Amino acid sequence: MFRYTLMRLGIFVGCLVVVWGLVHSGVAPRGLGDSNGMWIVMLALVVSAPISFVVLRKERDRASAQIVRRVDRVKSNLEANRSQEDGTVDETADRTADQASRAQGEVPQTQGQTS
Known about the structure:
Layout (H helix, E strand, L loop, with lengths): L1 H24 L10 H20 L1 H58 L1
């Protein structure tokens, strides 16, 4: 993922330099008034996007597969934690039910002995 980001940034910077050179030499139009810097950045973004889409296809697929593996690992960890928590809750409920049934069972015996 980091590699893809750096490659994408490199393509953008390369386009930025080329667009700046074209605007500075007068080949590409300048922005209106003081917007020349913003115009250069926007034009570089528009030019670099399709270049990155085509050139970085394999790297993007690798980054996507890496993200999918991470998401699957997190999901499996969450499911393992959830089942572990469910097991603990079930054990606690069983112990509480056993204690309650013992307490109810002991009460009549005690009352029966005193009568």
